[in-house]
Design brief:
2 copies of one chain form a homodimer. Chain A has 246 residues and is α+β, with helices and mostly antiparallel strands. Chain A is 43% helix and 21% strand. The radius of gyration of chain A is 18 Å and the shape is globular. Chain A binds a DNA duplex (30 and 30 nucleotides) through helix 8.
Chain lengths: 246, 246
DNA sequence: CGCTTCATTGACCCAAATCAATCTACGTGG
DNA sequence: CCACGTAGATTGATTTGGGTCAATGAAGCG
């Protein structure tokens, strides 16, 4: 069965989707559009009518505080839904920006309601997906709350490596990670300056290479050790079939 | 229409529940049982067959790291489901403990699946509830990632005050908050010692009173100001009808 | 009434923030 | 093809919010 979009693939790794379910899901991404890196998909305060499905590219959820501080609360990869919350909850309480050029598909609120009412399996899969997002968030919290800068950075790298791998974005020991050091710091609750020092140290210890927005993990053992990383919270099913170009 | 359990009430504040839906939901809490403060409802690594619904009392999600550090990632109040994740995801990646004596109801995995398939409105409401949990988690992350100890503590107090109020647990300007300073610190990514100093300062400034596990917010303006608190992320609908004794 | 758990306080230390340059890579217009 | 402007990366010097360590007080309770 031909999988035409990464959401279908993601949900399919959790539940057995019927032919109808697959049709429904694949249909959702029928009208992809392209967006440029740096743009915001959606801003805090908006009341979107559509849920955006990320098909290719990287995005990130973030919130800017009154004094200008920014916290990035999640990174989004292909197959992730950007703003489920809102379509159910109303106003966005944070923004979503693009870290790279991306392809997205808009899914109307009505479509989601319709699909979830008609196909309970999909409803459950979407719920599951939300629960995974929540698990990730819990781990970020643990990470920021309890680990020091070095271990924390290691943990984020491990997570992103796993998630990138799952959607076929890892080549060998490296993958494109379109983050500036400032954005990395904002994801970790660290300053850009300190983030830089952590990276320097990781380089010095031969753990990584990180240049031109490409991260190579040279010593995965060391990295996982520092992070005390256990990927099970991601509930990933590694797949052999990669996601092809859309 | 008589509301017999706080989950029904919570979900009812989001969607219009039919008579059937109400029956379904109320039926879920038919066999409550009591648990003692300090016990764990569930432990990391377990694979529960049931979802636990908290009917009365306080609980908290937490994870203990290898070196003994602990991070509390959520507080649970009456009406909250404890471990939806797991019933869908498998193994628990954290534990849930009780901060007070509590009444809980176990709901089997099958029941959840059955109810969500038969009543899409309930399915959607459950999804919504998960999305609210996620919003709370995002705010905790922002809080720990960007605010200093004082503001952070203020924010948590505001949140707990709002949530306690919603389920009718606030009297005047005070409510029972069964947390030790160490647990409070573990919720905030702070040491017990530093948490104590923050509380001293808040007392000194006439913001709070906190003794005998009871927190009074004397200066709500000041508290909200420090926290830059905006309750909208909780998506609460304040109700006049209180939850009666179960 | 003697434990044990929690709260409080003081002295000292350190990881990370802050402040301030400088350096580098790269896109752009001439 | 090159000078320049700008965003991002580095590095050093200094400060500081919170952590750590270590006692000492309460307070609840079997």
């Amino acid at each position: 069965m031909r999988v035409t979009n990464p959401l279908t693939m993601k949900l399919g790794s959790f539940v057995d989707l019927s032919k109808d379910d697959l049709d429904h899901l694949n249909h959702l991404a029928s009208f992809p559009s392209r967006m440029r890196s740096g743009r915001d998909i959606i801003r805090e305060g908006e009341r979107p009518e559509n849920v955006i499905l990320l098909l290719t590219g990287w995005a990130y959820r973030y919130k800017v505080l009154a004094d200008g501080r920014r916290q990035i609360v999640a990174h989004l990869l292909p197959g992730d839904l950007c703003d489920t919350h809102v379509f159910i909850l109303g106003r966005m309480d944070h923004s979503i920006g693009l870290l790279s050029d991306a392809t997205v598909a808009a899914i109307s609120r009505e479509t989601i309601i319709e699909v979830t009412e008609r196909a309970p399996t999909i409803a459950r899969a979407l719920w599951w997906s939300t629960l995974v997002d929540e698990a990730v968030l819990r781990h970020w919290l643990i990470n920021i709350g309890q680990r020091d800068a070095y271990d924390r950075t290691a943990h984020l790298f491990c997570e992103l490596w796993e998630r990138a791998a799952q959607v076929g974005l890892v080549n060998g020991n490296a993958f494109d990670l379109p983050l500036t050091q400032e954005q990395l710091g904002d994801s970790l609750g660290l300053t850009a300056v300190h983030t830089n020092r952590v990276l320097q140290r990781m380089r010095g210890e031969g753990l990584i290479t990180f240049q031109g927005k490409r991260l190579a993990i040279l010593d995965m053992e060391g990295m996982r050790g520092a992070a005390a990383f256990d990927p099970s919270y991601l509930h990933l099913v590694r797949r052999n079939d990669k996601i092809g170009p859309l």
